[in-house]
Amino acid sequence: MHTPVHTTRRGWLCGVTTALLLSGSPATHAAPPSAPSERGGYWLSVDCVGDTAALTDAHAALRDGLELTRAPSEESPPGALLGSTDEPTDAIAWLARHAFAAAVSTGSPERISTVPAPVPAGALVHDHGVVVRAFIVTGATASGALREVAWPADQRSLLPPGLEWTAASLTVDRAPLFAAPAPTVPPAAQRHAMVRRTGGLFVLGWLDRCDDSGRCLRWAQVVARTGDRFMPGYVPAFMVAAQHAWVRGGAALPRAQVLRSGVRDGHAELLLLARDRHGELHRKRVTAPMIDGKFPSTDLKVEGDWITLQIAGLHALRIAADATMDLRSRTLQP
């Protein structure tokens, strides 16, 4: 409805007086209240198993240092709700405090490392006798409703300052996550969980497990994300590619990297990975002699559609970055 226009002086004064009474004088006019913040946050929860008393104590330990700054408005987040935070980096910092009692030292990648393997969520296992199935980070809206988290492709953006986790991805569609490493891949029934390439993956370090014959398998100590569930454990290293380790030529594709997967019969087992110009992943298994009980050093170059792999003390391999990589393995001798 349009307000009538007053043409008389008396009517004009009446209109102005009415407006001032309704809105206040210009000198004292208050700003309109700001709209509620649309910024959401994250709920921190845990899925673990144990008896009632043990779970109560474990939840209290995990809640230490956390605040519950928002309450769910309707549906509660999954698991036992422990706290909330506004920043994803704070959620990852919480995970880092509890995922493992310690991260294994990476040291020199050429050396065999048989250091003890930290137990996933080991402090909760040792102190309270509970087993953690997953740490859960759920998205929250400003009003306390659940929201889907758009996890970034660049996982490094999630890391708080000082946390030296390596952003990585699986080289297979899905992989078994184990609670402890072994000289060979255990039966699938013994897995701790299954993780998927479509999720996220951080590597904390690596270690090797060897049997009496000298056969060794390298493992990656990881925190894997499937959806909003973060799970600590161990994955065979030949299934894990660090995002920063890809070697490129003049373009984003093709690209390649070398994985140290294990030792057999005195020979290092290496896995050459390559994504061709169409983004398809190819693999070639390469074996070469160990040098003074260590993996041989490698140098990798990508030029156009060709990969050159130089292994210390041996001749270089020149390999096409295409499906012919998958046909057979190569064994190199001095």
Shape: globular
Question: Which sequence of SSEs, written as H and E, runs from N to C?
Answer: HEHEHHEEEEEEEEEEEEEEEEE
Approximate strand percentage: 35-45%
Number of strands: 19
Cα separation of the termini: 93 Å
Query: Uncertain segments of ≥5 residues (pLDDT<50)?
Result: 1-37
Number of domains: 2
**CA gyration radius, whole angstroms:** 29 Å
Give the helix level as a range of percent: 10-25%
Query: Largest sheet at a glance?
Result: 14 strands, mixed
The structure class reads mainly beta
The averaged pLDDT comes out at 89
So how many helices? Answer: 4
Task: Give your account of this protein's structure.
- This protein has 334 residues and is mainly β.
- It has two domains: 41-240, no CATH class; 246-331, no CATH class.
- Helices cover 13% and strands 36% of the residues.
- The protein has four helices and 19 strands.
- The chain has helices at 9-23, 52-63, 88-98, 122-128; strands at residues 41-49, 80-85, 131-140, 146-147, 166-170, 174-177, 193-196, 200-210, 216-226, 229-236, 240-242, 247-248, 255-264, 267-275, 281-289, 298-303, 306-311, 317-320, 330-331.
- Strands 1, 2, 3, 4, 5, 8, 9, 10, 11, 12, 13, 14, 15 and 19 form a 14-stranded mixed beta sheet that branches.
- A hairpin with a 2-residue loop joins strand 9 (216-226) and strand 10.
- The longest helix has 15 residues, at 9-23.
- The chain is globular.
- The model is unreliable at 1-37 (pLDDT under 50).
